[in-house]
User: Which sequence fits this backbone?
């Protein structure tokens, strides 16, 4: 009986997660954002609902930071600017997640 | 159970609340998105956005009769000339009748009308066997779909004794004005959107070199972005003379024409091709440079409320001018040209001199003729001037031509009556009793001036006087100047102007 209740709650939570993700994507299309912007916003919402390990977020930030100079070398000024902005987004996510993880670790050690 | 399904996860997990908070924040930050629209010339092409405030026709299938009461009083046996202008959107025909107050009617003519976009004049001669005082225009077929517009009714009594003399009358001369004449333009390219007007809340426009003596309008292409349920942003249109040498742009004098408008007001200037035609009526100096500009400095425009001017970044698209931007007090040339077309004006003329638009010069028979002209009370009156000093413009509030009351300020009319005159009667009102008094002088050679008297019968210092002659002159110059009195220092730097100018003359036609 307890297992059944847990399953119902977990299933409902999943449904709500999916609802938030779809809502994020739909909003992105309504406001005519670019596809990368929609993806980043969706990742942001997802990371609130189901925390993503900060190391993955920092990896994404590093990738965007790394390709920025190459884009500049190849005179893709607009793309380079976008890439730098995305890197900044992921750096912010990384810091937020890192803080969350620290707090979680503190709680666990207590 | 269902309520629990929704609330339970929120209660248990703050994360959902945080996610919902960020989603709501995103929606609020983008709330303008749901309420703004951009209107471009492309979306308005083929007359899609034309203002719906249509002028009511004089005759239609709903009202097939048009009455013009108490316009005149006929005498039995006398001959009359009726002049009126008309336009019809379909081929149609109308009966013109004279009528008494007792509803007794008499048909004087049936006229076939052709489909036309512009007004054209009709002239009808008639004689009556009785006394009538009203005119009736009536569709011959009440059910035809044509919308017919009738205006500028003018009736004059002829001095002829019989119908055979009608053929001896000289043709009536009508002062006509055509403003549909393209002058300067850069109309081949308008794909580039100049965002500068919004981004810097600046003044942006185009410089062009006048190749005509008159301007009657400027057509421009712009994207108008506006938010619903928001007060429309205010802009200012300015037209002024400018020095343009190399990249240096320096304005001369005050604006010739200036108008404040909102993005909603712009729709009244929308043309069937989707572009915006600003009516600007002024004299120009051929070969001189002028600028037209939109001022967004006071507009508070933003991404969702803005005007974006269209044109091209090709600097050579228009050879005799450039697009520019004004930031602070400085004008800066921009590479490229705005989309623009300036319209000039063409007048009827006799003996190389223009006939004032709306003037009627008619042969009444027995060597007698009549001249009549009156101000129309709109900005187009500016085109009737022969010359003007800087800062003379039209006041829409007072329906008057006015200027700053400085010692060198004046504006001049040339009245070409074609035939020599015996007597001219002139009536005009002061534009504003609080302003400096306007004086009217007249001359036959534009050199020697004689001051006209103020009317004795009115305290408003209007003009109501006659000029008599022996028939030596067929033209007269009228000059309006300010009265500047050293005694009244309050009025020294005021304005002056006239309104309701009416001129009639008895002519000698041999």
Assistant:
């Amino acid at each position: 009986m307890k297992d059944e209740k847990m399953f119902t709650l977990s299933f409902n939570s999943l449904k709500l997660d999916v609802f938030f993700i779809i809502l994020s994507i739909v909003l992105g299309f309504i406001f005519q954002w670019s596809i990368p912007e929609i993806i980043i916003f969706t990742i942001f919402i997802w990371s609130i609902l189901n925390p993503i390990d900060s190391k993955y977020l920092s990896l994404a930030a590093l990738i965007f930071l790394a390709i920025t100079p190459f884009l500049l070398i190849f005179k893709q000024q607009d793309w380079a600017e976008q890439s730098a902005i995305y890197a900044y987004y992921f750096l912010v996510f990384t810091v937020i997640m890192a803080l969350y993880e620290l707090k979680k670790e503190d709680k666990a050690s207590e | 159970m269902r309520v629990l399904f929704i609330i339970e996860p929120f209660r248990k997990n703050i994360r959902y609340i945080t996610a919902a908070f960020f989603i709501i924040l995103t929606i609020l930050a983008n709330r303008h998105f749901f309420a703004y629209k951009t209107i471009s010339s492309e979306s308005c092409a083929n007359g899609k956005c034309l203002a719906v405030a249509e002028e009511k026709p004089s005759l239609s299938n709903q009202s097939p009769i048009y009455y013009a009461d108490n316009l005149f009083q006929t005498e039995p046996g006398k001959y009359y000339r009726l002049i009126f202008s008309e336009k019809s959107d379909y081929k149609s025909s109308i009966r013109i009748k004279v009528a008494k107050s007792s509803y007794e009617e008499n048909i004087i003519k049936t006229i076939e009308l052709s489909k036309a976009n512009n007004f054209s004049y009709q002239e009808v001669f008639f004689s009556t066997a009785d006394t009538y005082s009203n005119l009736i225009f009536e569709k011959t077929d009440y059910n035809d779909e044509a919308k017919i517009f009738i205006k500028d009714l003018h009736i004059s009594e002829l001095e002829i004794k019989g119908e055979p003399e009608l053929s001896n009358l000289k043709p009536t001369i009508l002062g006509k004005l055509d403003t549909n004449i393209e002058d300067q333009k850069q109309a081949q390219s308008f794909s580039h959107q100049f965002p500068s007007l919004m981004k810097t809340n600046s003044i942006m426009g185009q410089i062009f070199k006048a190749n005509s003596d008159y301007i009657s309008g400027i057509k421009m292409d712009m994207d108008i972005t506006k938010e619903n349920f928001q007060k429309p942003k205010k802009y200012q249109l300015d037209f002024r003379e400018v020095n343009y040498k190399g990249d240096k742009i320096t304005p001369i004098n005050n604006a010739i024409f200036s108008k404040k408008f909102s993005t909603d007001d712009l729709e009244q200037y929308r043309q069937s091709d989707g572009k915006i035609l600003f009516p600007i009526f002024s004299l120009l100096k051929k070969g001189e440079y002028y600028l037209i500009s939109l001022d967004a400095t006071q507009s508070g425009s933003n991404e969702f409320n803005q005007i974006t001017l269209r044109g091209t970044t090709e600097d050579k698209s228009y050879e005799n001018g450039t697009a520019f931007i004004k930031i602070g007090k400085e004008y800066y040339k921009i590479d490229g040209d705005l989309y623009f077309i300036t319209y000039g004006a063409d007048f009827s003329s006799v003996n190389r001199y223009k006939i004032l638009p709306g003037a009627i010069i008619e042969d009444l028979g027995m060597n007698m003729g009549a001249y009549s002209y009156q101000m129309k009370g709109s900005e187009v009156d500016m085109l009737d001037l022969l010359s003007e000093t800087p800062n003379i413009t039209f006041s829409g509030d007072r329906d008057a031509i006015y200027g700053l009351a400085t010692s060198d300020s004046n504006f001049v009319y040339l009245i070409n009556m074609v035939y020599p005159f015996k007597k001219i009667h002139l009536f005009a009102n002061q534009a504003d009793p609080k302003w400096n008094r306007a004086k009217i002088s007249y001359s036959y050679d534009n050199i020697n001036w004689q001051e006209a008297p103020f009317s004795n019968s009115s305290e408003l210092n209007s003009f109501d006087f006659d000029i008599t002659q022996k028939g030596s002159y067929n033209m007269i110059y009228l000059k309006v100047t300010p009265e500047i009195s050293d005694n009244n220092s309050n009025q020294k730097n005021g304005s002056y102007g006239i309104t309701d100018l009416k001129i009639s003359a008895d002519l000698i036609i041999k």
Remarks:
- Helices of chain B lie at 2-12, 14-29, 196-199.
